[in-house]
Design brief:
107 residues, Alpha-Beta Plaits, 4-stranded antiparallel sheet, 3 helices, 4 strands, 34% helix, oxidoreductase, monooxygenase, Dimeric_a/b-barrel, Antibiotic biosynthesis monooxygenase family protein
Length: 107
């Protein structure tokens, strides 16, 4: 399971180091959670103000439990909430893999 969060960096160049430190801190928090596989920060080559935090998880449950942890809620969610508002969780498609059924959620 792959999670892709994209962010717009602050326009003020002096604010970018703190922004980067915030993303690195969230990544470190997530990396300490059970079910975390790997992840990285990246910056877009063509638009340097566009940043990415990508993480890979054993399964969607591990990712959701990580988001529910006290430390991530306290320190990570405020940073993650600044991500571009778009779907971020992806199912990795491998040859001959059975995919989740695409159907609306019932609430």
């Amino acid at each position: 399971m792959l999670v892709v969060n994209r962010f717009h960096a602050p326009e003020d160049p002096d604010a970018v180091p703190a922004f980067r430190a915030d993303l690195e801190g969230v990544h470190a928090l997530l990396a300490g959670m059970p079910g975390y596989v790997d992840g990285w920060l990246a910056r877009n080559l063509d638009e340097p103000g566009l940043w990415l935090l990508s993480t890979r998880w054993q399964n969607v449950g591990a990712y959701r439990r990580a988001l529910s942890s006290y430390d991530v809620k306290l320190h990570g969610v405020p940073v993650l909430s600044r991500a571009i508002d778009e779907p971020s969780a992806y199912e990795v498609v491998e040859p001959n893999a059975v995919l989740n059924i695409a159907e609306p959620r019932v609430t």
